[in-house]
Design brief:
With 214 residues, this protein is mostly beta strands. The protein contains 1 helix and 9 strands, in the order H-E-E-E-E-E-E-E-E-E. Strands 1-2-3-5-6-7-8-9 form an 8-stranded antiparallel barrel. A hairpin with a 6-residue loop joins strand 7 and strand 8.
């Protein structure tokens, strides 16, 4: 059993022992920003490397102990693409990016009058790996197409486990740490050293979070 799923079961069992929490007020909305590291595993491990991760997430608590989530995670350069696109404006650098779009839910155990949240969750995700050319004209609106850029995509499921704590009396601002594991399949072009076939991909992402709740 994976650590995120085991954590979710642990949180769920603790909730059964804490019915008195239902009378306490809580914030229903949360906007989260995450920064950390993405660690490719599974078939990706020989071809991809650990790289920085940035994520954003919105959560809505439909109940004190249950929240629905949707987010977006971006990883920078895990495939190590080293290529250039010849153009009339010179050779333009091609870089690779990996995107995950998770959608699911979590179980929350509030502790110490909502000051601390221990949580675990599950859900599905869309994954896309793509190469993009560095655009020389910024936000002018003119973009150079990359006819040699590769892409892959597919679907996955994920598990998440973490803890955060409020830093103000109103319980609006929270800092925390967590881990999210993705497991799924992607297919498409050869990407970096990845062959042009379906692969079984796994990512173990660790991160710190800052949240605003209201």
């Amino acid at each position: 059993m994976s650590k995120p799923i085991a954590g979710l079961l642990t949180v769920g069992s603790l909730l059964l022992l804490a019915p008195s929490l239902a009378a306490q007020p809580f914030n229903r909305h949360s906007a989260n920003v995450s920064v950390g590291a993405a660690r490719p595993r599974g078939e990706l491990r020989p071809w991809f490397s650990d790289r920085p991760l940035v994520g954003v997430e919105y959560g809505y608590r439909i109940h004190r102990n249950f929240q629905v989530d949707a987010g977006f995670d971006a990883v920078f350069g895990a495939a190590g693409t080293r290529d250039w696109l010849p153009t009339d404006f010179g050779n333009l650098r091609i870089r690779d990016y990996q995107y995950m779009v998770p959608f699911g839910g979590r179980v929350i155990l509030p502790v110490a009058d909502e000051r601390v949240h221990v949580y675990g969750g599950l859900g599905g995700a869309y994954m896309r790996y793509s190469e993009a050319v560095q655009q020389p004209f910024g936000d002018s609106g003119y973009r150079i197409p990359c006819y040699i850029c590769a892409s892959r995509d597919g679907f996955a499921y994920y598990g998440v486990f973490g803890v955060n704590a409020s830093v103000d009396d109103a319980r609006r601002f929270r800092f925390g740490v967590g881990t999210k594991v993705y497991r799924g399949h992607t297919s498409g072009d050869a990407f970096g050293a990845t062959p042009p076939r379906e692969t079984t991909d796994r990512w173990v992402n660790v991160f710190g979070t800052f949240s605003v709740t209201f």
